[in-house]
Specification:
This protein is an alpha+beta fold. The chain has 3 domains: 11-78, Winged helix-like DNA-binding domain superfamily/Winged helix DNA-binding domain (Arc Repressor Mutant, subunit A, Orthogonal Bundle), CATH 1.10.10.10; 84-209 and 397-418, ATPase, nucleotide binding domain (Nucleotidyltransferase, domain 5, 2-Layer Sandwich), CATH 3.30.420; 226-390, Nucleotidyltransferase, domain 5. It is built from 14 helices and 17 strands. The strands form 4 sheets. Strands 12, 13, 14, 15, 16 and 17 form a 6-stranded mixed sheet that branches. A hairpin with a 5-residue loop joins strand 9 (166-170) and strand 10. The protein is globular and about 75 Å long.
Length: 419
């Protein structure tokens, strides 16, 4: 019989410890007896692991459970103030950084304007600057201990090799193949993780939002860029794990069509339905076109006849006031999104579709038409199986909360992001 080496035993202990911590995080307050039942580990092992977690102050005892006879068992919960994380959300128009506790609660944040960086050095300095500002402001807070920060998570739109910490192609920087994690390590001693914004979004939903305990998820991230244009990113959770693909780049929607003219015999009708997924023309342009064509709308009054001042947010606000033009535009956009979601529902057969990003504040104005289209176009069985919901990680620092789980996932799963 082969002997189990010390390295194997240590790895087994880490896996068991992460398993226990993950269950306490998701289901706490919880008793030791219930941990034993759920993990199927021995009572002795659970006692030892809980003792270590209590000594490390990652877990704390809180209250007493209902007794089925004898002494009432002591309950355990995650100790949120035993550690902190920094989440950085790099967008095309802004860059945000926030500090969260171990439960993902945002404690404070800072925001700066952003635009596309020309070099990797410029991008690194922007991230360093916003993190430095956050640390400086948090230093006066008595409820945040900087010596207990467990890492920095960075969300970046684009193609990201999360395992190597490399931006293969990023929408926020003109350079390619940037070893961002290594570059940031020159400035920070904390562990650093990076990933694209769609994977960050679904990771946050899995731990804190509507995706808790759901094993098969399709996450669509609608992101705003120049001139109120919006594009779609995608992430898949399959059997409880983010599917990343062979090169860590899964989830891109559409084809790279810059060289399509070089392919002999390729006609427009052969590729027109495989363009990168965007809301095009932008929502404001669609509204302006209807108004110029003679449609009456509240939008003109809202922007004092300056049609160039109409934004996506203006259209959503007007739609909530039952403006016909705005309602039509949002319904048309939602139906087009619904067609694509129906295709992915057939392809993937998820339990849950989550819509996240810069359009979710439209809420049912967006959600209801999408559900209607998916119900009609997806095949009957997957359509009846799937639920479509909006992201719960919203607000100004919702992206930072998601990014924090790039760090927290390393606590709650045996091998972190790549479990």
């Amino acid at each position: 019989m082969d002997k189990i080496g010390s390295g194997d035993l240590e790895a087994l202990k880490r896996r068991n410890k992460s398993l226990v911590l993950s269950i306490i995080h998701r289901q706490g307050p919880i008793s030791r007896a219930e941990l034993t039942r759920l993990t199927q580990l021995s009572k002795v092992t659970i006692t030892r692991l809980v003792k270590e977690l209590l000594e490390e102050e990652v877990v704390r005892e809180t209250g007493l459970d209902i007794s089925s006879g004898g002494r009432r068992p002591i309950l355990l919960e995650l100790h949120p103030e035993s550690g902190f994380t920094i989440g950085v959300d790099v967008g095309l128009e802004s860059i945000r950084a926030g500090i969260t506790d171990l439960k993902g609660n945002i404690l404070m944040g800072v925001k700066r304007k952003n635009e596309v960086s020309q070099t990797r050095e410029e991008l690194v300095q922007k991230i360093k600057g916003v993190v430095d500002e956050l640390l400086e402001k948090s230093d006066i807070r008595t409820d945040i201990r900087l010596d207990k920060i467990r890492g920095i998570g960075v969300s970046i739109p684009g193609l990201i090799d999360a395992e190597k910490g490399v931006i293969l192609f990023g929408h926020v920087v003109d350079e390619k193949n940037i070893p961002l994690r290594d570059l940031l390590r020159k400035h920070f001693t904390y562990p650093i993780s990076i990933d694209n914004d769609a994977n960050v979004g679904v990771l946050g939903e899995r731990y804190l939002g509507v995706g808790r305990d759901v094993k098969n998820i399709l996450y669509l991230h609608i992101k705003r860029y120049a001139e109120d244009r919006m594009s779609l990113g995608c992430s898949f959770v399959l059997d409880g794990r983010i599917y990343r693909g062979a090169s860590q780049t899964s989830g891109e929607l559409g084809l790279r069509l810059s060289d399509r003219k070089l392919i002999e015999g390729l006609r427009e009708e052969d590729w027109i339905n495989f363009k990168p997924w965007e809301i095009d023309p932008p929502i404001p342009e669609q509204a302006v076109e209807k108004i110029v064509s003679g449609a009456q709308s509240l939008l003109k009054k809202m922007v004092k006849d300056n049609l160039a001042a109409i934004t996506t947010d203006t259209v959503i606000e007007a739609a909530r006031k039952n403006d016909r033009v705005s309602l039509e535009v949002l319904q048309e956009v939602a139906r087009k999104l619904g067609v694509r979601i129906a295709f992915l529902v057939n392809f993937m057969n998820p339990e849950l579709v989550i819509l996240g990003g810069d359009l979710v504040h439209a809420e049912n104005l967006l959600l209801d038409p999408i559900r209607e289209v998916v119900g009609h176009l997806a095949f009957e069985v997957p359509a009846q199986t799937v639920t479509i919901k909006l992201s719960e990680l919203r607000g100004e620092f919702g992206g930072c909360v998601g990014a924090s789980f790039l760090v927290l996932s390393n606590l709650f799963t045996p091998t972190g992001l790549f479990a």
